[in-house]
Amino acid sequence: MKIVIEGAGEVGSHLAKMLSAEGGEITVIDDDEARIAHIGSTADVVAILSECSCIETYRRVGVPKADLFISVNPHKIQSVNMISAAIAKQLGAKKVIARISSEEYLSAANKAVLSNLGIDLMFFPEKIASDEIIDMLRDTASTESMDFASGKLRLAVFKIDDETSPILDMNVIEIARSIAELDPKAGFRIIAISRKGETIIPRSETKIKWGDHLYIISIREGIDLIARFFGKSNNVISKVMILGGSEVGEMTAMRLSGMKLDSVKIIDINKQRCRELSEILPDEVDVVNGDGRNSDFLLEEGLKECDAFIAVAGDDEVNILACVVARKFGVERVIAQVENLEYVSLADEMGVDAVINKKLITASRIFKFTLGDKVRFVRYMRGTDAEVMEYTVAPGSPITKHQLMDLDFPADAIIGGVIRGSESFIAVGNTHIEPYDRVAVFALPSATKAVDRFFK
Known about the structure:
By secondary structure, the protein is an alpha/beta fold. It folds into 4 domains: about 1-125, Rossmann fold, CATH 3.40.50.720; about 130-135 and about 235-360, 3-Layer(aba) Sandwich (Rossmann fold); about 140-230, Regulator of K+ conductance, C-terminal domain (Alpha-Beta Plaits), CATH 3.30.70.1450; about 385-455, 2-Layer Sandwich (Alpha-Beta Plaits). Helices cover about 35% and strands about 25% of the residues. It has helices spanning about 10-20, 35-40, 55-60, 80-90, 110-115, 125-140, 170-180, 225-230, 245-255, 270-280, 295-300, 315-330, 345-350, 360-370, 450-455, and strands at about 1-5, 25-30, 45-50, 70, 95-100, 120-125, 145-150, 155-160, 190-195, 200, 215-220, 240-245, 265-270, 285-290, 310, 335, 355, 375-380, 385-390, 415-420, 425, 440-445. A 6-stranded parallel β-sheet has the order 3-2-1-4-5-6, sandwiched between helices. The longest helix has 14 residues, at about 80-90. It is globular. The mean pLDDT is about 85.
C-alpha cells in the first residue's frame, strides 16, 4: 500500500512509524529540515523536504498513485491541511485525510462542502480527546470502554488493584463459571490481559494477578454485573477540576458546563489564557489563574471535594504528578493527558485511572483506511499494543467456512463478540460466523494481517 503523509510533527511521525511497521510504502513530506531528518532516521520511510501543498513535489513522490494521503501539518492554519488533501485527491490519490483544528468544519453542512472537494475524512484530535474524557467520566468503573453497534456489545477495561478482589488467582474458566452462576445470561469473555507491559491472549487456565488490566467484552445486559463481581462500581461525578486551559481543557469544560454538575473549575498558569477562557466559557465554569504544580494551591481550590480531576496541561510530567496528588487526597477519578508513549505505563503504575493520548486516538481513526471498507472501525487500547477491530463479514470469506474451533485463526488474536441483525452474543468455539455478521476482533500487531485475510 502506497501512503503519503504531509507533516512530520508528533502525529505524522507516529503514523509514519506505525504504518511503516505494517509493511506499507510510506513517504513523508515536511518543510522543516529538523523534523525530516528525525523521521528519516527513526522510521522506514522516504523523507522529503518540501513546501506544503507543492504540486510538483506531489507528482514527484507519486501522490497520483497513492492509496492514501494524510495531511497532518503541525502548527499550520487548518486550511493548509484541507488544501493539501483536496489537491492530492484531484491528482488521483484514492483516499485523503486532513487534520483540522476547529469544530466548525465538523458540522453536517460544512462536512458536505468539504466532502465535495474529495476529502474522505477530517479529524480533530483535541475534540476526540475531549469526547473520550467525557466518556470516562460517565463510566468510572472501568479505565477505558467502547461500544459496538450502539452498545449491543461493550468492551471495558478493568484494573485489578484491590488486594481483596475475589478474582485474584482465579483462572479464566473459574471466573466464567462464577458469573454464570450469578446470571446465566450475563455473556462475556476475557479477551486480553495486560500485565507489566505484556499483552496476554488468555486461555482457560490463565490466572488473574494483582495489577492486571482485564479486557472484557460483554453483552450490554451483563457489564454491570461483571463490574460488581470485579469489585468495581460507577460513582456519580458532580464536582470536576480541570488542570490546563488547553484546547482539550476548554472543550471538556464547555461540555461539562451543560451537564448540570455541582461545579466545574478550570485552572491555568497563564493569566492571558485565563482571560480568554473567562470570555469563551459559560458562567457555570469557574476559571482560576494559578500553578497546578502547587498542591497547597490545589487544596485551597477545593481538590479534596472533587469527584474527578482532569490534567490536560501541556506537560506530561505535570499532568501525571498532579493526578498522583489528586489521588493522594482522595479524588476518585483522575485522568491525565500523556503524549509521550513511554510515560503511559508510568502513569498507570503511579495510580492514574485513565490516560488520553492524541497520537493513539488519531492512529485508530486513520488505520481503518489501510484495511478497507470491510472494517467499520479500529481502535488502539491504551496499556497494550493491540488493536480492536469491528469487521463486517463478506459472503464467501474464509471466516465463514467452519466453526471457530476448526479455523486456523491466529493465536495472537481472538474473536470476542458477534452482532447478527438485532442479536448480539459472545463468540465461543462452536460459533459459526455468517455473512454480514459484525465481528469484534482483538489482535496483536503480529496477527493483524493474518486476521484481515480471514475477512477477505
